[in-house]
Amino acid sequence: LKAAGELSSAMAAFRTAIELEPTYARGYNNLGNCLQALGQHARAVPLHGLAIELDPTLATAYSNLGNALRELGHFRAAADALGVSLQLNPLAAAAYTNLGVTTQLMGQPDRAAHWHRVAALLSPSDATVQLNLGAALEKSGRLEEAATALESALRRAPDNAAALLNMAAVRHGQGRLDESVSNVQAALSLDLDSELEAKAHTTLGTTYMAAGSSAASMEAYRAALALEPGNEMAQRNLDKLPVSPAYRAAASYECRVLASRAARVALALAGARRAGRGRSGQGIALLGRPPKQRGRDAPGGDAPLSCMLFRIVRYLRRLETEQVDL
């Protein structure tokens, strides 16, 4: 009944089973799943907990508990529950996927990519697994690997809007802006809900902005705001347009500041590791001084500047969280 989407009937059946056998752990676990399907994650948590008390070896109860805790924003507890689930059933691809999603929400994209890779080994033909892997790799700045995973997802599900939008982000980061636009337009040709359509228009606006097409970018941001008036990114970027020479010069200066900062962090981390010291007390973020601002923007136009800034920020984030080898 649950698989058929008849949640009310399924819940009634599970409650009857529990009344007949109050120690039936799977009944509580399945009832909790139904509540999660209805978005009632807080009510599901104690049911999964009771299932675990009744049967501490029930791997799916730990997995479902982890999913409910993640939806409630308790990421560390969710990861712990999913970890126990995998100890009990190390071949559960879905649990690795859920652990990957959870660790990405914890700001650990490299670790998330690791768990998604394991899920991909167990379910190599699953488009969603490849999509999640590509998204994690994109967030960690490993764009070539992300593109490979997303291409695999799109071969299996060419009309997957999320995969198309993630691929657009990857192509943007690689400086392949025409391809990024094509990916977003392909997503917009699908039947999207308003939230995803607004995200697509925002992504399109960002890409046009990087390409220096202010008019097209403004149109895309306005379309996003018409669908989602509270879209802060679209509004913030729209407020910057049309791009002036002064704005380009400021962006170029910011890019050089971040490049200098990334180099200082890399050198400081390398020196600290050679000396056998940690990051603490090294003053890494304060080393050196930012470069002097130039009077004009560097040559090459908006697209190279945007892509350089994109890569520097991602690399710096990984350096400062010690997620990259030196």
Overall average pLDDT: 85
Number of helices: 16
From the spread of the alpha carbons, the general shape counts as globular
Largest sheet: none
- What is the multimeric organization of the chains shown? single chain
Please report which band the strand proportion falls in: under 5%, 5-15%, 15-25%, 25-35%, 35-45% or over 45%.
under 5%
Outline the low-pLDDT stretches: 279-303, 322-326
SSE series: HHHHHHHHHHHHHHHH
Structural class: mainly alpha
Count of extended strands: 0
Report helical residue fraction: over 70%
Radius of gyration: 23 Å
Tell me the span between the first and last alpha carbons: 53 Å
Task: Explain what the structure shows.
With 326 residues, this protein is mainly α. The protein has helices at residues 7-20, 25-37, 41-54, 59-71, 75-88, 93-105, 109-122, 127-139, 143-156, 161-173, 177-188, 194-210, 214-227, 232-239, 245-274, 302-320. Helix 11 runs antiparallel to helix 12. The radius of gyration is 23 Å and the shape is globular. The N and C termini lie far apart (53 Å).
Search tags:
mainly alpha; globular; 0% strand; disordered C terminus; 72% helix
Short description:
The protein has 326 residues and is mostly helical. The protein is built from 16 helices and no strands.
Topology of this protein?
Blueprint: H1 7-20, H2 25-37, H3 41-54, H4 59-71, H5 75-88, H6 93-105, H7 109-122, H8 127-139, H9 143-156, H10 161-173, H11 177-188, H12 194-210, H13 214-227, H14 232-239, H15 245-274, H16 302-320
Helix pairs in contact: 1-2, 2-3, 2-4, 3-4, 4-5, 4-6, 5-6, 6-7, 6-8, 7-8, 8-9, 8-10, 9-10, 10-11, 10-12, 11-12, 12-13, 13-14, 15-16
